[in-house]
Amino acid sequence: MKDRIVICTSCPLGCRIKVSVENGKISISGNRCRKGYDYALEELKDPKRILTTSVKVANGEIPLVSVKTSSMIPKRLIPQIMSKIREIEVEAPIELGDIILKNIMNTGADLVATRTVRRIK
Ligand code: SF4
Fold first, then answer.
1. Residues flanking ligand 1, CB < 6 Å
2. CATH topology of domain 52-113
3. Residue 48: CB partners within 8 Å, gap ≥ 6?
């Protein structure tokens, strides 16, 4: 495998961490702390992300509400989760912080509204 650079997002310093795998041996360098080492290892094995997107709203002042996951979810599950999200429609009113979907695909993360949408009818 070629060397790969990952940017650690665990703190604002954003260290550029080099990850290499040769003959099954993982080598990590450029991190300034243990958190960065763990982050790079996770990026290699099972990367995780906060998902931000939007969900359809019925009878709202706007047709979509912005949402995000309450914690990081495995990147590999995002296509399946997005398919599920595209199928749902919530009824206005929606309050900032409302849980739209609980424990998405058993990830432990909820999908949470990041704005308020008032009802119009
Ligand atoms: S490696 Fe440590 S110091 Fe560098 S960005 Fe990550 S958490 Fe911050």
1. 8, 10-11, 13-15, 31-33, 35-36, 39
2. CPE0013-like fold (3.10.530)
3. 42, 72, 73, 74, 75
